[in-house]
Design brief:
The chain is an alpha/beta fold and 313 residues long. It has nine helices and 13 strands. β9, α6 and β10 form a beta-alpha-beta unit. It starts with 15 loop residues before the first helix and ends with a helix.
């Protein structure tokens, strides 16, 4: 009699098509990171690693092997070479699980036969990125939020951390009204060490409030990546006949609208909204990654991570 181990349901968030992509990609931080483990990202702390930083005067107790004999021969100064230490990266992945993320477009992509809402797309995306960071020895954590923080997993680098993140994502369901701006301020205060903050959201909140929150991460010296997740229907508004539009966050009653009468104004507002987010990220030197849920997740990951890896060379 043969037995087989049954994988937990949360492992479905790492389907074969995603794993095949993530196994051959890596992430290199652009900003210097603070951490305690040796890794591939530069740290603001100086030690005796591989990248030269500066000299300092020799003091008793320093290892004589680190003396710079060339400088000493020219100046009679006893100086030590200091180098930029390499460290691990601490990543916080913040996933918007508000009601608006439950929208599923008719053109949305699918994973293993499941048509993806913005929420489902965000879950798969967050799971893939968490796997990538922990695979390469970095530390990843998770925040889920709607009108407030729903869950907070501190960054960890053990392989078991992948399972913890997947389980949390799997159990989470779209919730209440969005308050992206205030929640991100709270997240910025909770993440103490300099690291990477990855936001996965449709950003449906007052644009100015969101921009101010993004500046908070920059003030805390975090590297920032914004995955702006929208459905094709939200971007192109293809509706032609009278439609009933239901507020997924239950703030407004259901409305019956003639799409022809509002299309031009709606599309102009969407363009302004997207440009505001993109310009804010550009001013902060943050990565702005527009995500259309009709694009297969595999293609989104390959396009962004491939471009980033190429840029680091």
């Amino acid at each position: 009699m043969s037995t087989s181990l049954e994988l937990p349901p949360s492992m479905r968030l790492l389907p074969d098509e995603t794993m095949g992509v993530m196994r051959r990609l890596e992430w290199l931080a652009r900003k210097r990171m603070q951490g305690t483990l040796t890794g591939k990202h530069t740290s603001p702390d100086k030690g005796f690693s591989v990248e030269f930083a500066e000299h300092r005067e020799y003091t008793p107790g320093d290892d004589p092997r680190n003396l710079d004999w060339r400088v000493m021969a020219k100046s009679d100064r006893n100086v030590i070479k200091q180098f930029i230490e390499e460290t691990n990266l601490r990543v916080t992945i913040a996933v918007d699980v508000s009601g608006s993320m439950a929208f599923t477009g008719d053109e949305s992509a699918s994973v293993e036969g499941e048509t993806l809402s913005k929420f489902h797309y965000a879950r798969y995306l967050a799971a893939a990125m968490a796997y990538l960071f922990i695979k390469q020895g970095d530390a990843a954590g998770l925040v889920t939020f709607d009108a407030g923080v729903k869950s907070y997993l501190r960054a960890g680098s053990r392989p078991s951390q992948v399972r913890r993140i997947l389980d949390e994502l799997w159990e989470t369901r779209p919730g209440a009204e969005t308050r992206v701006g205030p929640v991100l301020h709270e997240v910025a205060e909770r993440v103490h060490k300099r690291g990477l903050v990855m936001l996965v959201s449709d950003m449906f909140d007052d644009p100015q409030a969101v921009v101010e929150a993004l500046h908070h991460f920059d003030f805390r010296q975090h590297e920032l990546v914004v995955f702006h997740v929208l459905a094709e229907e939200e971007l192109s508004f293809p509706f032609k006949s009278f439609q009933r539009f239901r507020d997924l966050e239950n703030v407004e009653p259901m409305l019956r609208i003639d799409p022809q009468a509002v299309r031009a104004a709606y599309l102009e507002r969407v363009r302004e909204f997207v440009k505001t987010m993109e310009d804010a990220c550009g001013n902060l030197r943050a990565d702005y990654v527009p995500v259309n849920t009709k694009t297969p997740l595999r293609d989104t990951l390959l396009r962004y991570l491939g471009r980033r890896m190429h840029a680091k060379r």
